[in-house]
Write a structure and sequence with these properties.
homodimer; DNA-binding; 193 residues; Tetracycline Repressor, domain 2; mainly alpha
DNA sequence: GTCTATAACATGATAGAC
DNA sequence: GTCTATCATGTTATAGAC
């Protein structure tokens, strides 16, 4: 991929993930790029095409392999903690990823949702699915995976909200403490912390 | 409140919660209302004012009293289950509520987030906070409450996504089974189901 | 690969009739 | 309380020069 095109995808992903499809104009993207709006059409035929390309681009960055380091560990609880830390770090590292996911969950049509399902979870889904079979055999594994996703996505996004809540904690929550909290809750529930 | 104005707030809330502020035009709202765009300005001075009024309107519907029926129950676990069912039902009943919450979490500025914090959780926060003190004394109660919020919001929103995931369950998830899943997970973790 | 210029249309908002 | 008409601006997209 050419350098300009990749930068364009990055700028577009930044803006779209933060302000949504309708909230970002081609001029906004062009301004951030330092070019004129018309120049974008040399790289992509339409705003729609640019959006889809940017979303795909962000998702492709997250199909890393996490299962290699995991497969050697026997204890499923330990493997879970590793996966949760990996998920949190991946989502923390690229806010665009989790925001596009949440955004598409809100307004995505069936077609986009199917694409999301295929792309967003690929790196984590299969190892997680297998893991759930070990941790809680016979249970609804998909429900558990969606629970885990809900916990991680929401905690990261809610850090902006937390200071405004009634009994706000003094310092802000660090990533490792979040990982410990989620792992603990997911494994043993609220009664064990 | 006049009848037309209330209907206007409802239509606006429907559209804004589904497509976001930038994704909805005054003409979209007018079309749904069966009036012209200019007529809206008789009721609200600007798009911004209408949006804020619609959001406030939706939130005000959800400051119901749930604590009355709860205070008589001694067992904290039982009270938790009641609260979770109440949360799920409230959010299921009005998708606009949870979507506006998630939307503002994504793009809300500090001012709006503060307003959200004040309004979105008012009905549930205090009883939940107290409950956490009984269920897990000494723990970070706010983290637990945000966990619970993440679970409920995400599960409800992800029901559109679930059928597209790799190992999708056959039937769709019912509200009572969701409530049972979340309560169980939150109380005892994945290992107990 | 980027520019200027422009077409064709959508948008938020106002003025004034009824 | 709603209408028509209109304004100023912003929008996606195209044409053609460099």
């Amino acid at each position: 991929m050419e350098q300009t095109e990749e930068r364009l995808l990055n700028v577009a992903a930044d803006l779209f993930s933060a302000q949504g499809y309708a909230g970002v104009s081609m001029r906004d993207i062009a301004r951030e790029m330092g070019i004129t709006q018309a120049a974008i059409y040399h790289h992509f035929p339409s705003k729609d095409a640019l959006y889809i390309a940017a979303v795909t681009y962000v998702f492709e960055q997250h199909t890393l392999e996490v299962s290699d380091q995991m497969s050697v560990i026997d204890d499923p609880s330990q493997r879970l903690e590793l996966l949760i830390v990996a998920m949190l770090e991946a989502m923390e590292e690229d806010p665009r990823f989790r925001r596009i996911y949440l955004r598409e969950l809100l307004e995505g049509d069936e077609l986009k949702l199917a694409a999301i399902a295929e792309n967003a979870f690929t790196a984590f889904y299969e190892p997680l699915y297998e893991l759930m079979g070990e941790l809680a055999p016979g249970s609804d594994r998909q429900l558990h995976i969606l629970s885990l996703a809900g916990l991680t996505f929401h905690h990261l996004e809610a850090r902006k909200l937390a200071p405004h809540l009634p009994h706000a904690a003094k310092g802000k929550t660090t990533l490792p403490s979040l990982a410990r909290h989620i792992t603990n809750l997911f494994l043993h529930g609220v009664t064990s912390s």
